[in-house]
Design brief:
Among the domains are: 66 residues, DNA Methylphosphotriester Repair Domain (3-Layer(aba) Sandwich), CATH 3.40.10.10; 49 residues, Orthogonal Bundle (Arc Repressor Mutant, subunit A), CATH 1.10.10.60; 71 residues, 2-Layer Sandwich (TATA-Binding Protein), CATH 3.30.310. The protein contains 21 helices and eleven strands. Helix 3 runs parallel beside helix 6 and helix 19 packs across helix 21.
């Protein structure tokens, strides 16, 4: 999982931000672990860890200066085991929070608890429980540093079952109580909070804003030249968030909402803006193709557009079949207006339970397409289709089994709702036209053969092709 010790040492000496969050540095003389961007002592006094959980498991305390919990997230794909990578994604989505168990996680992955623990020990050096505990600890520490929320609310928001467990965990790791770590400069309590979400440079934030702007759902989302805003409903409490970009971080201002859902909101934003991406790794592969490399150099920090609400994106994919992007946005606004819930911040997009009961004749679209939305909603509401799946093939197969959903729609949903970096829309007309222009290929099988060079980042390659088509004269 880790590069060679020599490469790690060079990255540590240079305090290279490209490696931030990809490994951590333990200092033997102090018992503290740091981010690679933090100045630490001489080479003979350090030890390297692939993840924060490994450092904590080894008895190291997080550095209070560089704040390891504030570093960009470790990509799940760093695990060399497919099962481990899938498990990490589910853990990051909260599979072990709110009473979730290792046995339940193992069942979802189709392996035994013993085998899952063995895989984690082999590939990560820690147990699934330790990974989940570290995730909770890091998010709680982030809220302590960045907000003035009461400790009880922080404990509940971070997934601790009780304040006592929260306090015990902090004393065990930091050797002090949570209150002793608080600085009196948080963003406040109650109605407005400000969260910082780290990312790795480069980051083409404006390219993402351009993508979201033309696809924004009227009334629900608003995108300006520098910000993204949307209404949301979590834990049946309405709120509004606004995201802007700074140096190395996205700043998210949250109005309203439930503090107990902050971790869920934080995770949704990380997926939506693809914040765990490692551009250097993606670009290294894509630039192996000379013609594609020219596009990558124009937007080296391009990200995959994810989904704040995966179900909303799935509906958007169906609505967008054979209509213009603007036309699809208009229909999405109608759906939100007719079936969504009105809040003090504006309408929120309806959930699957609500759309499972929609009247196909009420929407300005072909009846079969409206019925496809209702069928999808019914499957999601029943749990037969879930957006926390990690097996893309099974997920796409379940979508294709529904009337009115074809390969393009299933692939688009997989790319955005699952955040699959290798999802590729080989049937997309825009991509086909750009590939014919740049590569001289016209047949789908030739396109798929070409795209093999871009694995496992075909999703990013597709985004570069889309961007080229949108920006060329």
């Amino acid at each position: 999982m880790l590069p060679s010790p020599l490469a790690l040492e060079e990255a540590r000496k240079a305090r290279d931000p490209r490696f931030d969050g990809r490994f951590f540095v333990g200092v033997r003389t102090t018992g503290i672990y740091c981010r690679p961007v933090c100045p630490v002592p001489r080479e003979e006094n350090v030890v390297f860890f692939a993840a924060a959980a490994q450092a904590i498991e080894a008895g190291y305390r997080p550095c209070l200066r560089c704040r390891p919990e504030a570093s960009p997230g470790t990509p799940a794909w760093m695990g060399t085991s497919t099962t481990v990578s899938r498990a990490l994604k589910l853990i990051n989505d909260g599979a072990l929070d709110d009473g979730g168990t290792i046995a339940g996680l193992s069942d979802r992955l189709g392996v035994t608890t013993r085998h899952l623990s063995r895989l984690f020990a082999r590939h990560l050096g820690v147990s699934p429980k330790t990974v989940a505990q570290t995730r909770r600890l890091q998010f709680a520490k982030k809220l302590i540093d960045e907000t003035m929320l009461p400790m009880t609310e922080i404990a509940m928001s971070a997934g601790y079952g009780s304040v006592r467990r929260f306090n015990d965990h902090f004393r065990q790791v930091y050797a002090r109580a949570p209150r002793q770590l608080r600085k009196e400069d948080g963003s406040g309590t109650g109605e407005t909070l400000v969260l910082q979400l780290a990312y790795r440079e480069p980051f083409s934030f404006n390219t993402l804003l351009d993508f979201y702007r033309v696809r924004a759902t009227p009334g629900v989302e608003q995108v300006t030249s520098s910000t993204y805003s949307r209404n949301f409903l979590l834990d049946n409490v309405a709120g509004r968030l606004t995201v802007s970009a700074g140096k190395g971080v996205l700043t998210c201002r949250v109005e309203g909402g439930s503090s107990r859902e902050l971790m869920r909101l934080h995770g949704a934003l990380k997926r939506m803006f693809d914040l765990d991406a490692v551009p250097a790794e993606v670009n290294r592969v894509l630039c192996g193709d000379r013609k594609l490399a020219a596009l990558v150099r124009q937007a080296p920090g391009l990200r995959l557009p994810g989904a704040f609400d995966p179900f909303e994106i799935a509906v958007r994919a169906i609505v967008g079949q054979q209509v213009s992007v603007k036309g699809a946005s208009t229909v999405m606004g109608r759906i939100a207006e007719q079936y969504g819930k009105s809040t003090d911040y504006g309408p929120v997009f309806p959930d699957a339970d609500r759309l499972a009961r929609l009247d196909p004749a009420s929407l300005p679209m072909p009846r079969k397409r409206a019925e496809a939305i209702r069928s999808l909603a019914a499957e999601v509401a029943s749990g037969r289709i879930a957006f926390d799946q990690t097996d893309k093939s099974n997920f796409e197969a379940s979508l294709l089994a529904l009337p009115g959903i074809g390969p393009w729609t299933a692939q688009y949903i997989a790319m955005r709702a699952l955040g699959d970096p290798d999802a590729f829309l080989q049937g997309d007309l825009v991509i086909r036209k750009v590939v014919k222009q740049l590569f001289g290929l016209d047949r789908e099988r030739d396109l798929l053969a070409l795209a093999e060079r871009w694995r496992p980042w075909r999703g990013y390659a597709g985004m570069h092709l889309w961007r080229y088509a949108a920006e060329k004269p």
